Amino acid sequence: MSITYREVKADILRQITQGTLAPGSAMPNEVDLAASYGCARATVNRAMRELADDGIIERRRKAGTRVRQNPIRQVRLNIPIVGQEIEELGATYRYALVHGQAEPAPNWLRARMALQRDDRVLHLTCMHYADGAPYQHEDRWINLSALPEAEQHDFSEVGPNEWLVSTVPFTDAQISFHAVQADATIADYLDCTEGDALFQTERTTWLEGRTITFVQLTYRRGHRVTMQY
Amino acid sequence: MSITYREVKADILRQITQGTLAPGSAMPNEVDLAASYGCARATVNRAMRELADDGIIERRRKAGTRVRQNPIRQVRLNIPIVGQEIEELGATYRYALVHGQAEPAPNWLRARMALQRDDRVLHLTCMHYADGAPYQHEDRWINLSALPEAEQHDFSEVGPNEWLVSTVPFTDAQISFHAVQADATIADYLDCTEGDALFQTERTTWLEGRTITFVQLTYRRGHRVTMQY
DNA sequence: TTACGCCTTATGTCTATATCTTTTGAAAAA
DNA sequence: TTTTTCAAAAGATATAGACATAAGGCGTAA
């Protein structure tokens, strides 16, 4: 077999990292590269397409391909559901429903979830434990107009996150990470001190333009999200 | 022209989201799909490959392709350098070097950066401002054994991050996000109250197995990292 | 029954060629 | 000079056919 697209990709990357192909410089076109590697143009194309996707090079029709001045640094971040996250740590997962009640949406939440004036929400408060110790506090609101079956569902055994991903998979979401100070309630749940700095994730989820759910996930003290690139 | 791989991808995705193809179910093989779409196998292959890459379907040689039971939720997170980040907010960026000194690596850092006993590091403390207000505090250590030219460089005008990405692009890195409480020093720099919960990023960067730099980036109060998927 | 190894099959990849689309730069028109 | 138009260039994508590779499953031998 002749040269593979992986080898072409690796060779081009090597030339870039070793400085043979300088940042900002133009690269030969696909036809010429294919000729010099002695392979088909499609093979070069795939290698170049992946490098562009990785943020290493920049491609423009007619203008050609050039090495990016500064490579785009990007990571892929998996968003696991908390049970899996805990079990991957090698710990035992336990879930508890703290509180669940259907109620009219408060104003701040109506704005946040883009709800109508009379929309009702299911407010759930849950705890997730790793090896018996508090791991994550979940404060969730589900839009009952968009997902009425949530009101009948029993969340005492299975967490709302798990139920939602199996009931409405393939949603869109916006996620945000930030830091919050533990208030007395959260400190109590997460077994930490009031005022502690905690890592919090907020997530709003849509299905076909309708807001399904908004959730605040507050992690135990010292939680980290790590990534490689 | 006949059907495109994008259309095939969109159609398969539609079937999955609409439930025609149930989660966990096996899909027809590429040859059959190509026949039913009236296109080449390569076209179907690209559509399916991208769906697999998106975490929607699962492919295994011989075993075939099936719809994932729970789609993998993943986001792509760009790691901008702080100047760009601030300018994208529409604010004016200003940089200041607070402190810079070459010194022997303290023990905790030696462990963290996997340094030898006698390795020296350049310790830099910098501030980044958006429209004149504190935005980010940078505490950085550069391994002088790996990057001796850093010692001669003047970091009073251009931040170490910018200098590093142009001097040693194409590095590997591990990033971590977490929350910290502002101590008196940080509170002073970031113009917040001691004890405030702040978002912090830590990053260790390698080049060919050697640790280049370790940095702690502490953001102003209320900083958020947001993503879509 | 169990373990090993072959056969088949589905995906993975390459080739060679062709057409489509976007974009740039130059020529032509105002 | 400025604007419009157009052709060429380069990447984007499609096709048909071929071979490569991994792995499930079955048959055979221990």
Automatic annotation (TrEMBL), chains A, B:
* Cross-referenced Gene3D superfamilies: Chorismate lyase-like (3.40.1410.10), Winged helix-like DNA-binding domain superfamily/Winged helix DNA-binding domain (1.10.10.10)
**What keywords sit in the KW lines?**
DNA-binding, Transcription, Transcription regulation
Q: Name one Pfam family in it.
A: UTRA
Any idea where the HTH gntR-type domain is? 2-70
Q: Cite the InterPro entries for this sequence.
A: Bact_HTH_transcr_reg, Chorismate_lyase_/UTRA_dom_sf, Tscrpt_reg_HTH_GntR, UTRA, WH-like_DNA-bd_sf, WH_DNA-bd_sf
What name does this protein carry? GntR family transcriptional regulator
The protein's gene is named hutC
